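Sequence in, structure out. Go.
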Amino acid sequence: MIDYMDEALRLWAAEFHAPDGVPIVGGGGGSSLATLIACKGELIRSTAQGRVLLERSAEIELIVNKHLPFEEHQVVIEHYTNHDSLEHQRYEACGCSRAQFYRRLHKAHESIRDQLINRKRAA
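Output:
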């Protein structure tokens, strides 16, 4: 796995695919008051020290849903957004072994990283 991409995908999942439908991180253009209300007054400062800006989350959402091959998309969704399954259940859902699961995840990290770099160059 690529550490930077792992962090970016964890923030993406928290912003766009929170377990209860309420993002667990603040930012992304919303108001601070709305974030505090949504988090029931519990201020979570996870994004202040994060190396990944939440604006990247929207780009990652597009890349994951539109540009990744099916097997890579499936592994990313299982790994970062499926909070209810055990590890072996995630491998089974993707129809692969643990080793294959992490090879696909690494390949997805590389694909997303490369597409983010290409988008930055094009801008």
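Check: DSSP finds six helices and no strands in the chain. The radius of gyration is 15 Å.
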